[in-house]
Amino acid sequence: MKQRLPLMVFLVLLALGPLFLPEFYVTLLNYIGLYSIVALGLVLLTGVGGLTSFGQAAFVGLGAYATGYLTTAHGLSPWIALLVGLGVTAGVALVLGFLTLRLSGHYLPLGTIAWGISLYFLFGNLEFLGGHTGLTGIPVLEFFGLKLNTGREFYYLIWVVLLSFVLATQNLLDSREGRAIRALKGGGLMAESMGVNTARTKTTIFLIAALFACVSGWLYAHLQRFVNPTPFGLHIGIEYLFMAVVGGAAHVWGALVGAGLITILKQWLQDILPKIFGQSGNFEVIFFGIMLILVLQRAREGIWPWLVRLVPVRQGRRTVAEAEALPRREMPAAGTVLLEVKEARKQFGGLVANDNMNLSVKAGEVMALIGPNGAGKSTMFNCISGVDPVTSGEIRFLGERIDTLTSREIARRGMGRTFQHVRLLPTMSVLENVAIGAHLRGSKGVLSASLHLERAEEARLLAEAKRQLERVGLGAHLFDEAGSLPLGQQRVLEIARALSADPCLLLLDEPAAGLRYLEKQALAELLRRLRGEGMGILLVEHDMDFVMGLADRVVVMEFGEKISEGLPEEVQKDPVVLEAYLGGVE
How far is CA 482 from the centre of its chain? Predict the structure, then answer.
């Protein structure tokens, strides 16, 4: 109850606001609500998904102009115009997303600036949209026979829409699809290896952010009953992004805080600064620039996390509900060849990283891939898991050729992996990090998640993640932030994440690095149990004591080529191996 008290107080004050506040402040709250809807989309797109966009104001314009034109020129109902506007916005967003979401780094925001400017000038140059003069006479919005003539009447519609979007966004982020969205910040390599379709996920959040902006534009048009291009320019797009960043770009409620703070400050500064400087001008822009620099320096996560710390709420005891176990794949019979690599060659320009590599892994065995630093072991891992396709040669998994498949498609077939350099989402809980590995074992989509219709599946995914964490000895850290664990436990966490995908072949890239002696003993015991269950394990490791006490067979690499293969005791006596590691038998 105490956890929800601040929210309940906020909702009560929000509901009573129009009954007591002057007209000016009701109007201000209306605009805060409209801006918050757009900023909320940017929280999902930029703060959570890591995709920077300066063009959201253009999508607001699409929603506003769609309803303005259809209701004035064709006499359509505003509600039908909303549906048409959403359709048009979705189509435009899909095209623009296809063109710009392939960009990375600074090219992506530059791309959003380009189409944001283009749409702004398009609005102003189309005669049927009124040119730069705009459209007038947009009809009053009716809601179940009630005409929303004034700002006080419109107020409740704006805030109900906003709070509905906030709830839907929170539901989405607290789901399988939400973890896929958050995984984008960890890099496409990790997410794709866990089975996340990163291209589809990026397009999805880009589309959601655009549709949020469209709804805001629709509401704006019927509130103002007039639209022209001015509110949809690039400078307003920058302002929306500014709101999200200042409020807390990675926090849903940060959208409301940022929109409220910037809108109120802007209004106050427009009144106060001319009195100080004795003339009118855009002095508030200078102030906002300085403010943004201070926020980025002092509160990079925005204002919302700071507010949360001011109102500490004691967390209740968190648990993972018991749920029906997820279906498991049938393990191949012991001795079945899981993986075959034949004549594999990987070349980067003039550098040959792997040359004429041949190896195989069977069900129920641990096969170690060893060699000096730079021998090409991790490159071979990446070729096998589909991260970097081979230049030539053949790789088969369970009899199927996979050297032309993506890492996501290979993961779906039953291959899990860890990474040489730990790839976790440090601010997410240990439990959620592991649940990402079970992504392919769920099927509910974005709409189900937003409406919270996937709770049964979500409970099963989290229960599976908990089971794997207990299996590897991290059951006491379910709700800790993954980044707070020491490196050794983070490596074990990656193994739990790979196991939650229910693989039949496990690729482990230096899993014992950073582990203490007892931790290595526990890891070796875990891998022996997995081997006993029929799982095949391909292991890259530099700790020779760990490898030789665990592996059934060993392949030794040097300069990208296989120089030896056999039982551990045979490989340790091989003169070629001794030459590679020690410089000679002597």
Answer: 16
Separation CA 183–CA 280 (nearest Å): 47
| CA angle centred on 178, ends 499 and 232, rounded to 5° | 150
Token code pair at residue 42: 């940017």
Conformation bin of residue 517: beta by default, left when phi > 0, alpha when psi is -120 to 50: alpha
Rounded to whole angstroms, the Cα distance separating 112 from 104 reads: 12
Separation of alpha carbons 38 and 31, rounded Å: 11
Q: How many residues does the chain have?
A: 586
Predicted model pTM:
0.91
Q: CA neighbours within 13 Å on the CB side: how many for 224?
A: 19
DSSP string, 114-136: HHHHHHHHHHHH-GGGTTTT-EE
DSSP state of 47: I
pLDDT of residue 280: 65
> Percent of the chain, pLDDT > 70?
96
The DSSP symbol for 366 reads E
80 touches 70 (CB < 8 A)? yes
Q: Is 497 helix (H, G, I), strand (E, B) or coil?
A: helix
Question: Which two tokens mark 354?
Answer: 């792997």
> Cα 136 from chain centroid?
41
Assign 563 to helix, strand or coil.
strand
Structure confidence by residue, pLDDT tens digits, 488-531: 889 899 999 999 999 999 999 988 887 888 888 888 998 999 99
Tell me, what's the pLDDT at 374?
82
For residues 491 and 418, the answer to whether their CB atoms sit within 8 Å is yes
Q: Nearest Cα to 234, choosing from 65, 100, 120?
A: 120
**Banded pLDDT at 278 (limits 50, 70, 90):** low
Q: Residue 88 corresponds to which tokens in the numbers above?
A: 């048009």
Four-residue CA torsion sign, 317, 318, 324, 325: negative
Has residue 281 got a pLDDT over 70? Answer: no
Q: What is the pLDDT of residue 6?
A: 79
**Amino acid code (one letter) for 269:** L
Cβ atoms within 10 Å, residue 581: 15
Q: Is the separation of the CB atoms in 240 and 42 below 8 Å?
A: yes
Q: What CA–CA distance (Å, rounded) separates 290 from 437?
A: 42
Q: Is 449 exposed, middle or buried (0-12, 13-18, 19+ CB in 10 A)?
A: buried
| Residues 357, 343: Cα–Cα separation, whole Å | 5
pLDDT beyond 70 at 317: no
For all residues of the chain together, what is the average pLDDT? 89
CA distances from 284 to 259, 267, 291 (A): 15, 9, 10
Task: Output b/e per residue, 422-438; b: 16+ Cβ within 10 A.
Answer: bbbbeebbbbbbbbbbb
Q: How far is CA 187 from CA 175, 437, 479, 506, 525, in A?
A: 19, 15, 23, 21, 31
Q: What is the pLDDT of residues 206-216, one digit of tens each?
A: 999 999 999 99
pLDDT of 300 higher than 70: yes
Helix, strand or coil, per DSSP, at residue 76: coil
